[in-house]
Design a protein that fits this description.
single chain; alpha/beta; FAD/NAD(P)-binding domain; Enolase-like, domain 1; 3 domains; 7-stranded mixed sheet; 5-stranded parallel sheet; 12 helices; 22 strands
Length: 448
């Protein structure tokens, strides 16, 4: 590979790009990665990690109230957004440093510039310098989509939510997906009045209907407003600094912040991919095969930029498979079957495998087992919020094809249970497992 400056040039130092870079370098490849912002990507810098820290912070609102029922003399507490914000951003800085150090320790050259593809083996940096590589890996991720209508530029996205100067008293969140519902729960617990606007009739399309219906019910009980079947018409800024939002089918609403959580778009614009023959789909995602290879033999792509499954662990798996296949002599492909998912709402949801509707459509005969209960902690706290666990089984073989949960710590519980679903175990295997009492998780082996 002496004809090239590098064996591998990676554009984007997010979850997929850093894994591919580090592992390829460990195999002996000469690797460089270009990153125009910060090492760590969406998840570490402006996504799942800082968001989960906000979720932890939001949980204290209910925990402090509940503590009184458990004998603790808890005074009225005041929430300081600036303290949490700054502590979260400081932890992001720490992680950015660790990711950078990890790459450098493995011999990866980090280039803090924007890079564009100018040939099958050529990359041009923002400084004008041109470098060559045997392989080029596109791992630039995606960015939040903002609808185009008058005044849409007055809103923010999840990117900016972590940097707000002050906590808005009234927040309008656009969208019905997991980002919208997570931030709705966060802001609501912090004391903001939250309104969720969705253009369809349901939240969390694609999730099991029982779970999303339960979350909607609980969210409304907690004071979150929902406006369905509505489109944005206009946003204007008033003299008092507030935003006046005009919606279809509803009266105008006055808020302090509009947050768009309306999907994510692959970051391929201006990257030069189409000019060198890389095929993109109608959303701008890089088309790749099972080995992450694009229509140009020397150019590959992993992570959100491919729009296959926009999840951090999937991007990491894809980056690992890419490095193992091209440089490690251990070719393999990512298995996308039975990927567990979670929504860190209040309360959180988690699921793996087929929903009840999917199973009925694909299998015909299904058996459904459920447990609808109040967690022990909620009972003593006087909180009426109920958890719901559902097991979806093949009606003939009783093989577990889906598990779906909403309730405290649901994602933590599901992770281990997802192994059983992935392994193809039956309902009988769950029934034969002795319950771990008293826990919420024991409901999984007591389902009727």
């Amino acid at each position: 590979m002496a004809d090239y400056d590098y064996d591998l040039f990676v554009i984007g130092a997010g979850s997929g790009g850093t894994r591919a870079s580090r592992v390829s370098a460990a195999y002996g490849a000469k690797v460089a990665v270009a990153e125009e912002y910060r090492v760590g990507g969406t998840c570490v810098i402006r996504g799942c990690v800082p968001k989960k820290l906000l979720v932890y912070g939001a949980h204290f609102a209910e925990d402090l109230k509940d503590a009184r029922r458990f004998g603790w003399d808890v005074p009225e507490c005041r929430f300081d957004w600036a303290v949490l914000r700054d502590n979260v951003l400081a932890d992001v800085d720490r992680l950015n440093g660790l990711y950078t150090q990890n790459l450098q320790n493995n011999g990866v050259e980090i280039i803090a510039e924007r890079a564009t593809v100018t040939g099958p083996h050529e990359v041009t940096l923002a400084s004008g310098r041109t470098v060559t590589a045997k392989y080029i890996l596109i791992a630039v991720g995606a960015h939040p989509h903002v609808p185009d209508f008058p005044g849409s530029d007055l809103g923010i996205t999840s990117n900016e939510a972590f940097h707000l100067d002050a906590l808005p008293k009234r927040v309008l969140i656009a969208g019905g997906g997991y980002i919208a519902n997570e931030f709705a729960g966060i802001f609501n617990e912090f004391g903001s009045h939250v309104t969720v606007v969705n253009r369809s009739e349901v939240i969390l399309r694609g999730y099991d209907h029982s779970m999303r219906d339960r979350l909607l019910q609980i969210s409304i009980t907690k004071g979150i407003d929902f406006r369905f079947h509505s489109e944005f018409k206009k946003i204007e800024k008033l003299e008092n600094g507030a935003l006046r939002v005009e919606l279809s089918k509803y009266e105008p609403i006055e808020v302090d912040c509009v947050l768009f959580a309306t999907g994510r778009v692959p970051n391929t614009k201006g990257l030069g991919l189409e000019e060198v023959g890389v095929e993109l789909d109608d959303k701008g995602a890089v088309k790749v095969d099972a080995d992450n290879q694009s229509s140009v033999d020397s150019i590959y792509a992993v992570g959100d930029v491919t729009n296959r499954v926009q999840l951090t662990p999937v991007a990491i798996r894809e980056g690992q498979a890419f490095a193992d296949t091209l440089f490690g002599g251990k070719p393999h492909q990512v298995d996308y079957h039975c990927i567990p998912n979670a929504v860190f709402s209040h309360p959180p949801m988690a699921g793996v495998g087929m929903t009840e509707s999917e199973a009925k459509n694909k299998l015909g005969s299904v058996a459904i087992y459920q447990s609808d209960f109040r967690a022990m902690k909620n009972v003593l706290a006087g909180r009426h919020e109920r958890a719901l666990y559902k097991m979806v089984c093949d009606g003939v073989t009783k093989k577990v094809v889906g598990l779906h949960m909403i309730g405290p710590d649901a994602p933590e519980i599901l992770q281990a249970a997802a192994v059983a679903v992935k392994a193809g175990l039956t309902k009988d295997a769950f029934d034969q497992t002795v319950a771990l009492h008293p826990t919420m998780a024991e409901e999984l082996v007591l389902l009727k």
